[in-house]
Fold this sequence. Notes:
- The protein is mostly beta strands.
- Helix content is 0%, strand content 30%.
- It contains no helices and 6 strands.
- It has strands at residues 2-4, 18-20, 32-37, 46-51, 58-62, 75-78.
- The protein starts with a strand and ends in a 12-residue tail after the last strand.
Amino acid sequence: HVYVYFGGPGAFDVVPDVVFAGTVATSRFGTAVSSPGDVDGDGIDDLVVGAPASSPGQVFVFFGGGPIVDVTADVVLDGVSYDLFGASVD
């Protein structure tokens, strides 16, 4: 799982605001996480998450959506079996 906490004055607490979950429990979803900026050009930063133990390894891209966050990946990139694709994302 990847837990996201929104910041701001008086807004930070110990309860995650959004939880992203992988589709396979053994995929190591969340091994690598990056915010590469605005990938889709909509003015809102996006999130990239790796799952290298999937077969094949995978990288999930979640487009930022403003106040409502969609936890379904907008883009899923697949590597080649056993290549550890998704072990590092940036």
